[in-house]
Amino acid sequence: MYETKVVDLYTDFDLGIEEGGRRIRSGELVAFPTETVYGLCANALMREAVSMLYAVKGRPGDNPLIVHVADRELPDRLAHVTAEAELLMEAFWPGALTIVLPKRDIIPYEVTSGLKSVALRMPDHEAALALIEEAGVPVAAPSANKSGRPSPTTAAHVLEDFRDEIPLILDGGACPFGVESTVVSLERQRPIILRPGVVTPEMIADVLGEVELSSAALSLLDEEETVLSPGMKYSHYAPKARVVMTQGEGESMARAVTAHYDAMEAAGKTCLILASEQSYAFYGSRRCVIMGNRNNPLTFCQNLYASLRLADEQGVDVVILEALPPRAEGLAYMNRALRAASFRVLRAE
Ligand code: TXA
Ligand code: MG
Predict the structure, then answer these.
(1) Tens digit of each residue's pLDDT (9 = 90 or more) over 322-335
(2) From the CA of 263, how far away is ligand 2's center (Å)?
(3) Could you tell me if the CB of 193 is within 6 A of ligand 1?
(4) Model's pTM, two decimal places?
């Protein structure tokens, strides 16, 4: 039991980084901002610290962690870095791309849940890089949410989930992307995207010539893929409300949303629509928040998790989401939104 301290990095950057680095080295857990979502990190070379991380998060033991680094040299000591990996690091690091490679022995069993591979990422965030450098060790960091809850995009979200359970949260404001990094595996013959993010399949194919997208990106996993991509099998990102996704175009989609809303409310349920700038006027006086602009899918990524948490705060029974075309950042949005909805999809006529 701790009294969780929140350090504002805008006013106390050096102090926060120094304290964070010291705590990581001594085996404690520290929450920190990245360009994607907040992470909760532990010294990746210290088994007890990593085990504590799983326990505090309530994370299933078979879901491996991403190891974060602050330079391009360390990966060689942690993994067998292939020529393809070099190309990806050159193109996208620091950035929202996690690369899965055959691991070296230095990475403890606990970090990779016993897998022979390790996921590596260099975040593109000043505070994250400074913290990892200060710690002087690679840090294992999942998103800083209780397992199953929406990922945190502000320090307040982290505090909501871990108040008095971790010693330190570094507050760097809202995360610019709002969804987790793209995960690409280079373990097989062909590169495969296990989790889509703002680094898109097109961007990766431009560098490697080709990349496959796991069929789990937009659907439930089958058995074989579960082995490849452990994180995708869990019903993630879900608020307490029942989430429904509505698929369709323009007014017909908006009509399907209002029909579902009105039917649910008539049945005594409270609903919240996560609308777009294009559709919200159509919803009239129904309860809704604007998620973003349909022509700029990144805005949906930025606001998805915060909006799901808001739905919980308001205690609504039903959340209605709009589908986006699964292209560019829309693919990352749909990957999370479909899981939040447990794949419940209403198709507009
Ligand atoms: O943006 C991000 O990646 C954030 C920030 C904090 O960096 N971190 C994050 O971690 O999203 P987490 O633990 O919530 O998600 C890690 C994902 C999971 O889907 C996990 O299964 C996958 O990466 N993963 C980790 N190691 C793997 C491995 N060796 N093979 C396949 N997938 C792996
Ligand atoms: Mg996560």
Answers:
(1) 999 999 999 999 99
(2) 33
(3) no
(4) 0.96
